[in-house]
Amino acid sequence: MDKRRISLVACTLVLLLMLAQAAQAGDWPMNGHDAAHTSATDEVVEPPLKLLWGFETGFKSSGKYFSSAISSDGVVYIGFDNIVYALNATTSALKWKYNADGSVGDPAVFSDTVYITVYITQEKNKVLALDATTGAFKWEYTIGGSVTSPTISSGAVYVSSNDNNVTALYASTGNLKWKSEVGTDPTGDTFWDKIGDSFPSHPSVSLGTVYINGFKDSKIYALDATTGALKWKNKVDSNIGSSMIHNGIVYVRTFKNVFAYDAATGVLKWKYKSEADSSYFIYSSAISDNVVYIGSTYIWEDTNKFTQNLNGLEAIDATTGVLKWKYEMGNPIMNPPVVSGGVVYVANPNLYAFDATTGVLKWKYKEGYYIGDLVTVADGLVYVSQKDALLAFIPTSSISVSSNPSEAEVYLDGIYQGKTPIT
Predict the structure, then answer these.
(1) For residue 417, how far is the Cα from the chain centroid?
(2) Residue 239, Cβ density class (10 Å: 0-12 exposed, 13-18 middle, ≥19 buried)
(3) 406-410 long-range contacts, CB within 8 A, separation 24+
């Protein structure tokens, strides 16, 4: 048998074994990683990275709807337009796909079930539950208005929609647990005031409370997770994105500021004004080890056009609201940063890795090469979503190759790496 061919087979086997082991290291089961939407994981995936595989849908997506990658038990779930795909995290092999007959958002995984929200029309949408192993239909629940991706906590599925409702469903059956209608609260104030002409914020859940932000009325609401009853609300300065909860504090991003509220009472603890405005797109930020990470985007002018802004990544002390560091970038950050141990990953649309403590740029993938926008860290990999493809990156330090016989020549992406064994 050809010696070089032996080396290639051995390389594949060793790499697959390593990835199968890494798949147990950490999951990313829903949008924002967890119900508190921290966008952070303890799983450490250190750069530099190398492209491991790419999954293409096989058809030209409209690019209007594609989700971030969600991972559980070595399976990656992702939505492109109307279809949800389940892929083997190690090989990208297709396990199943499901046509939802409507645009799908980020999936969420709980126990043996995948939950997705499906946009059909402005007036009628739905929550779907599918078998995580086979993709078989389990149940559906109809929702009015544009609906967010699901948040799963304590056996319940939480979604919000711009028909002025927050809905809680029993995860096992899809039966209604409660629905918190908008309208007016006892003080006579508008409770929701149509939380968005387009998209409401994702519900965030922590310690028995659901936190939801009104996109249009610029308020944050705290609802009892069991009953849907209002606990408290507070007003901010402008449109707001989804909340994050960390160590008893709720963090809210607006166009110009970051607000920190006591999670139990709603009392303001501090406010941080960013030098980099984000006056059109607002997305969730990330929090880890008592640091809040935010990115800036474009400014929307009265002339109906976008202008370049002071784009960059900022790190803020989560206790005091004081800036720790910032890194200016040439392109806007359109989606949340992701924290993996001591590394912050950002796609804008190149893929960057920063030291979480100092803000020093550790690594950047292919200058000028379009990667994508949505980043997920799971299975020992970094996933990046594009409009019709999913890319998976692996740390170059994770690649070791052995062969029998030894001294087989090894090439990676056409580049000679040496002779086995390589560690």
Answers:
(1) 34
(2) buried
(3) 407/3, 408/3, 408/4, 408/6, 408/7, 408/10, 409/3, 409/4, 409/7, 410/7, 410/11
User: What confidence tier does 401 reach under pLDDT thresholds 50, 70, 90?
Assistant: low
Triad 22, 106, 309: Cα angle to 5°: 100
- pLDDT of the residue at 183: 38
Phi, psi for residue 3 in degrees, rounded to 5: -65, -40
- The answer, yes or no, to whether residue 343 has pLDDT greater than 60, is yes
3-state secondary structure the chain: CCHHHHHHHHHHHHHHHHHHHHCCCCCECCCCCCCCCCCEECCCCCCCEEEEEEEECCCCCCCCCECCCEEECCEEEEEECCEEEEEECCCCCEEEEEECCCEECCCEEECCEEEEEEECCCCCEEEEEEECCCCCEEEEEEECCCECCCEEECCEEEEEECCCEEEEEECCCCCEEEEEECCECCCCCECCCCCCCCCCCCCEEECCEEEEEECCCCEEEEEECCCCCEEEEEECCCCECCCEEECCEEEEEECCEEEEEECCCCCEEEEEECCCCCCCCCCCCEEECCEEEEECCCEECCCCCEECCCCEEEEEECCCCCEEEEEECCCCCCCCCEEECCEEEEECCCEEEEECCCCCEEEEECCCCCCCCEEEEECCEEEEECCCEEEEEEEHHHCCECCCCCCCEEEECCEEEEECCEC
Contact 69, 28 (CB under 8 A): yes
pLDDT exceeds 80 at position 209: yes
How many percent of the chain have pLDDT more than 90?
A: 50
C-alpha distance from residue 290 to each of 207, 257, 355, 375 (Å): 18, 18, 15, 21
CATH topology of domain 3-419: Methanol Dehydrogenase; Chain A (2.140.10)
